Amino acid sequence: xxxxxxxxxxxxxxxxxxxxxxxxxxxxxxxxxxxxxxxxxxxxxxxxxxxxxxxxxxxxxxxxxxxxxxxxxxxxxxxxxxxxxxxxxxxxxxxxxxxxxxxxxxxxxxxxxxxxxxxxxxxxxxxxxxxxxxxxxxxxxxxxxxxxxxxxxxxxxxxxxxxxxxxxxxxxxxxxxxxxxxxxxxxxxxxxxxxxxxxxxxxxxxxxxxxxxxxxxxxxxxxxxxxxxxxxxxxxxxxxxxxxxxxxxxxxxxxxxxxxxxxxxxxxxxxxxxxxxxxxxxxxxxxxxxxxxxxxxxxxx
Length: 301
Prior knowledge:
The chain is α+β, with helices and mostly antiparallel strands. The chain folds into 2 domains: 3-218, Alpha-lytic protease prodomain-like; 224-298, 2-Layer Sandwich (Alpha-Beta Plaits), CATH 3.30.70.1350. The protein is built from 9 helices and 4 strands; from the N terminus they run ααααααααβββαβ.
């Protein structure tokens, strides 16, 4: 997904989360619900996270300079990792703390209908945000195989929004169940337990996001299919006797460096060899547009 697509999904998520956070905090103040307070904190953190992702995308577009000759593409990976830490610490941590506090000192929820209304509307808003994010990320609104697509994707900002939205919707459903159990069965511990469950869900989502962005920060290569495509190009050139390992590294969702050691047939003149190298580089870029840096080294293998 292009950065513009990521931005659209992020803008949608920020708008939804700001509106939901205000509603949740208001409902929490009126009803005294810890699960609602946890959800309010979660939405506020998600709004901040959206701003950080936008900042990361902006920073990643800076042109290369002498200090960063391969550009700033990894900025978006760094800020996505920061988002994972914030979800873990502020979202999950605070939710678990509030839940434990209310389990130890349980209180009945007042004006419970407000919680039902706010949580139901929040699920609708988060669902709309998730639909936008999925369309921009995969081209459809299906969750089928989404984890595999996230693992293959190098668009950290795009899948961060999806992970956040999935965590938010799951947390909202848990909060709604907690309110219902407390209201219908009179179980005063339900609200605190729901808050702890929300915290566990958020820390789990944060762990998934941190794992995926960590790999990108360390420098992931092209996937096997893309490597095979480059192999196919090299095989079409009879002048190549042998080539080394195809080395690649992502510097951003749309910036990849590929380096290959190649042994050419000695029948080439210098001009012919240079033309052959240019042709190979052009062919690689034509089938893999995100490969913007190709280095072919001629040597005896």
